[in-house]
Protein backbone atom coordinates (compact mmCIF):
# COMPACT_ATOMS: atom_id res chain seq x y z
CA UNK A 1 0.00 0.00 0.00
CA UNK A 2 3.03 2.27 0.30
CA UNK A 3 5.18 3.79 -2.43
CA UNK A 4 8.55 5.37 -1.60
CA UNK A 5 10.79 7.56 -3.72
CA UNK A 6 14.17 8.12 -2.05
CA UNK A 7 16.36 11.16 -2.73
CA UNK A 8 19.08 8.67 -3.69
CA UNK A 9 17.37 6.60 -6.41
CA UNK A 10 16.97 2.84 -5.94
CA UNK A 11 17.38 0.87 -9.17
CA UNK A 12 19.23 -2.00 -10.82
CA UNK A 13 21.97 -0.30 -12.87
CA UNK A 14 22.55 -3.18 -15.31
CA UNK A 15 18.86 -3.43 -16.22
CA UNK A 16 17.01 -1.20 -18.66
CA UNK A 17 14.31 1.16 -17.44
CA UNK A 18 11.60 -1.24 -18.58
CA UNK A 19 13.34 -4.20 -16.94
CA UNK A 20 13.70 -2.24 -13.71
CA UNK A 21 9.99 -1.56 -13.50
CA UNK A 22 9.14 -5.15 -14.44
CA UNK A 23 11.39 -6.42 -11.65
CA UNK A 24 9.83 -4.12 -9.06
CA UNK A 25 6.32 -4.87 -10.32
CA UNK A 26 6.92 -8.57 -9.62
CA UNK A 27 7.35 -7.76 -5.91
CA UNK A 28 3.76 -6.57 -5.50
CA UNK A 29 0.60 -8.60 -4.99
CA UNK A 30 -1.70 -5.73 -5.95
CA UNK A 31 -2.46 -4.50 -9.48
CA UNK A 32 0.37 -2.63 -11.19
CA UNK A 33 0.45 -0.36 -14.20
CA UNK A 34 2.26 -1.39 -17.37
CA UNK A 35 5.94 -0.31 -17.25
CA UNK A 36 5.70 1.42 -20.63
CA UNK A 37 2.74 3.51 -19.47
CA UNK A 38 4.53 4.62 -16.30
CA UNK A 39 7.73 5.39 -18.18
CA UNK A 40 5.76 7.52 -20.61
CA UNK A 41 4.12 9.36 -17.70
CA UNK A 42 7.52 10.38 -16.29
CA UNK A 43 9.00 11.27 -19.68
CA UNK A 44 11.22 8.21 -20.11
CA UNK A 45 9.42 6.43 -22.95
CA UNK A 46 12.36 6.99 -25.33
CA UNK A 47 14.78 5.56 -22.75
CA UNK A 48 12.79 2.41 -21.95
CA UNK A 49 15.47 0.12 -23.40
CA UNK A 50 18.43 2.07 -22.04
CA UNK A 51 20.40 0.73 -19.10
CA UNK A 52 19.74 2.68 -15.93
CA UNK A 53 23.46 3.01 -15.23
CA UNK A 54 23.73 5.35 -18.21
CA UNK A 55 20.97 7.68 -17.00
CA UNK A 56 21.61 11.24 -15.86
CA UNK A 57 20.67 12.15 -12.31
CA UNK A 58 17.42 13.70 -13.50
CA UNK A 59 16.50 10.56 -15.45
CA UNK A 60 17.28 8.40 -12.41
CA UNK A 61 15.00 10.59 -10.30
CA UNK A 62 12.18 10.14 -12.79
CA UNK A 63 12.76 6.37 -12.89
CA UNK A 64 12.65 6.48 -9.10
CA UNK A 65 9.26 8.18 -9.21
CA UNK A 66 8.00 5.65 -11.76
CA UNK A 67 8.98 2.80 -9.42
CA UNK A 68 7.21 4.52 -6.50
CA UNK A 69 3.87 4.93 -8.30
CA UNK A 70 3.98 1.71 -10.34
CA UNK A 71 1.68 -0.24 -8.01
CA UNK A 72 -0.89 2.55 -7.43
CA UNK A 73 -0.04 2.95 -3.72
CA UNK A 74 -2.52 4.38 -1.24
CA UNK A 75 0.25 6.33 0.52
CA UNK A 76 3.21 7.86 -1.27
CA UNK A 77 6.41 9.09 0.42
CA UNK A 78 8.63 11.23 -1.80
CA UNK A 79 11.99 12.64 -0.71
CA UNK A 80 13.23 15.59 -2.82
CA UNK A 81 11.50 14.30 -5.99
CA UNK A 82 12.58 17.30 -8.11
CA UNK A 83 16.26 17.15 -7.15
CA UNK A 84 18.50 17.35 -10.21
CA UNK A 85 15.67 18.13 -12.62
CA UNK A 86 15.57 20.98 -15.10
CA UNK A 87 12.57 23.34 -14.85
CA UNK A 88 10.58 21.51 -17.54
CA UNK A 89 10.94 18.05 -16.01
CA UNK A 90 10.47 19.43 -12.49
CA UNK A 91 7.13 20.86 -13.62
CA UNK A 92 6.23 17.48 -15.13
CA UNK A 93 7.04 15.70 -11.86
CA UNK A 94 4.96 18.19 -9.88
CA UNK A 95 2.06 17.51 -12.24
CA UNK A 96 2.42 13.76 -11.64
CA UNK A 97 2.46 14.28 -7.87
CA UNK A 98 -0.62 16.47 -8.10
CA UNK A 99 -2.37 13.78 -10.17
CA UNK A 100 -1.55 11.19 -7.50
CA UNK A 101 -3.20 13.37 -4.86
CA UNK A 102 -6.19 14.04 -7.13
CA UNK A 103 -6.60 10.26 -7.48
CA UNK A 104 -7.22 10.05 -3.73
CA UNK A 105 -3.74 9.04 -2.62
CA UNK A 106 -2.04 10.54 0.42
CA UNK A 107 1.30 12.09 -0.52
CA UNK A 108 4.02 12.94 2.01
CA UNK A 109 6.57 15.25 0.43
CA UNK A 110 9.94 15.89 2.08
CA UNK A 111 11.69 18.78 0.36
CA UNK A 112 13.57 22.06 0.55
CA UNK A 113 11.92 23.15 -2.71
CA UNK A 114 9.54 25.79 -1.34
CA UNK A 115 7.92 26.60 -4.73
CA UNK A 116 6.94 22.92 -4.99
CA UNK A 117 5.51 23.07 -1.48
CA UNK A 118 3.53 26.19 -2.38
CA UNK A 119 2.11 24.48 -5.45
CA UNK A 120 1.41 20.99 -4.12
CA UNK A 121 0.87 20.88 -0.37
CA UNK A 122 -2.37 21.39 1.52
CA UNK A 123 -0.62 21.13 4.89
CA UNK A 124 2.97 21.94 5.78
CA UNK A 125 5.23 21.01 8.69
CA UNK A 126 8.57 22.72 9.25
CA UNK A 127 11.21 20.81 11.20
CA UNK A 128 14.30 21.83 13.10
CA UNK A 129 16.65 19.29 14.69
CA UNK A 130 14.09 16.51 14.26
CA UNK A 131 11.16 18.34 15.86
CA UNK A 132 8.17 20.10 14.31
CA UNK A 133 8.31 23.84 14.94
CA UNK A 134 5.25 24.82 12.88
CA UNK A 135 2.37 22.88 11.30
CA UNK A 136 -0.50 24.47 9.36
CA UNK A 137 -1.85 25.21 5.90
CA UNK A 138 0.46 27.20 3.60
CA UNK A 139 -1.88 30.20 3.73
CA UNK A 140 -2.10 30.27 7.51
CA UNK A 141 1.67 29.95 7.82
CA UNK A 142 2.21 32.86 5.45
CA UNK A 143 -0.27 35.01 7.35
CA UNK A 144 1.20 34.14 10.74
CA UNK A 145 4.91 34.35 9.97
CA UNK A 146 5.40 36.01 6.61
CA UNK A 147 5.29 39.64 5.61
CA UNK A 148 4.16 41.52 2.53
CA UNK A 149 6.18 44.32 1.01
CA UNK A 150 6.41 46.61 -2.00
CA UNK A 151 9.44 46.29 -4.27
CA UNK A 152 10.45 49.07 -6.65
CA UNK A 153 13.17 49.46 -9.25
CA UNK A 154 14.41 52.97 -9.92
CA UNK A 155 17.15 54.83 -11.76
CA UNK A 156 19.93 56.47 -9.78
CA UNK A 157 23.21 57.86 -11.10
CA UNK A 158 22.72 56.02 -14.37
CA UNK A 159 22.18 52.66 -12.68
CA UNK A 160 19.09 50.57 -11.96
CA UNK A 161 18.58 50.09 -8.23
CA UNK A 162 16.10 48.13 -6.16
CA UNK A 163 14.41 48.96 -2.86
CA UNK A 164 11.85 47.24 -0.66
CA UNK A 165 9.27 48.94 1.55
CA UNK A 166 6.93 47.44 4.17
CA UNK A 167 3.74 49.06 2.85
CA UNK A 168 2.30 51.00 -0.09
CA UNK A 169 1.90 54.14 2.05
CA UNK A 170 5.43 54.05 3.43
CA UNK A 171 6.80 57.64 3.46
CA UNK A 172 10.07 56.55 1.87
CA UNK A 173 8.21 54.88 -0.98
CA UNK A 174 5.98 57.91 -1.53
CA UNK A 175 9.02 60.21 -1.65
CA UNK A 176 10.72 57.92 -4.16
CA UNK A 177 7.62 57.78 -6.37
CA UNK A 178 7.49 61.57 -6.36
CA UNK A 179 10.95 61.76 -7.96
CA UNK A 180 9.70 60.19 -11.18
CA UNK A 181 12.67 57.83 -11.26
CA UNK A 182 10.72 54.66 -10.45
CA UNK A 183 10.54 52.19 -13.34
CA UNK A 184 8.70 49.21 -11.83
CA UNK A 185 6.52 48.63 -8.76
CA UNK A 186 5.16 45.31 -7.54
CA UNK A 187 3.95 43.77 -4.32
CA UNK A 188 5.88 40.91 -2.80
CA UNK A 189 3.69 38.37 -1.02
CA UNK A 190 5.02 36.43 1.91
CA UNK A 191 6.54 33.15 0.69
CA UNK A 192 7.02 29.86 2.50
CA UNK A 193 10.77 30.36 2.20
CA UNK A 194 10.35 33.45 4.40
CA UNK A 195 8.21 31.45 6.82
CA UNK A 196 10.83 28.70 7.00
CA UNK A 197 13.51 31.20 7.94
CA UNK A 198 11.26 32.87 10.49
CA UNK A 199 10.09 29.75 12.30
CA UNK A 200 13.46 27.99 12.36
CA UNK A 201 15.21 31.11 13.65
CA UNK A 202 12.53 31.50 16.32
CA UNK A 203 12.97 27.88 17.34
CA UNK A 204 16.74 28.31 17.44
CA UNK A 205 16.45 31.40 19.64
CA UNK A 206 14.03 29.64 21.96
CA UNK A 207 16.28 26.60 22.36
CA UNK A 208 19.26 28.86 23.00
CA UNK A 209 17.35 30.80 25.65
CA UNK A 210 16.37 27.61 27.46
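Sequence proposed for the structure above (210 residues):
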Amino acid sequence: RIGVGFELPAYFPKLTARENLAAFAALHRRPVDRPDEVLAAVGLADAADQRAATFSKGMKMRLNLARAILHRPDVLFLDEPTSGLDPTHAADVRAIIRAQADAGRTVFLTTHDMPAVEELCTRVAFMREGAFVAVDTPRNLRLAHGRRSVVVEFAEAGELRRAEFPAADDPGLLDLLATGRVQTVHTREAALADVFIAVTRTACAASGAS
